[in-house]
Design brief:
about 160 residues, DUF1796, alpha/beta
Amino acid sequence: MEKIHSYKPGYVLDDQGATTGSHSHFIKDHKYNVISVHDFPIVNGQPWMYNYLSFKRTIKQRVQRLYEWFNTSSSILFIRWSVIDIDEDQLKKETAELETILSTYVKGNFNILMIYPTDKVGQLTEVDWGMKHVCVIYVPIQINPITDNETWDYLLNGVSIEK
């Protein structure tokens, strides 16, 4: 694992629903080709790896819970709001790979809602990428995924959580 960016501003929602600044190291795990953007906070005088053991425990718990859901849920919806600067062909390739992997692990039904911010559209637009379990929605780049409740209301209309 290595730090790939020393500083990157981001935002999180506080308890009242307002956005507040959050700053974390970008850490790349070369073994699994994963970049962590929220798990290693920038603290003056503290190396990024200081939080590694806590991060490792948290990831282990989340993976165990995810596998449990894979085995016991009758239906799962995965949602990804893509980054703006990813190439669309690369995103299609990654999404197809994700669909293939999930098909081998998820026992019940699953779907992937892929939200792709692009300057190609002026409104939310459904696009068919030809993948059985994937629904792709192009959204205008200027839509903020944290604060645009109207977009989320549209995207999740009819979705419910069963316990």
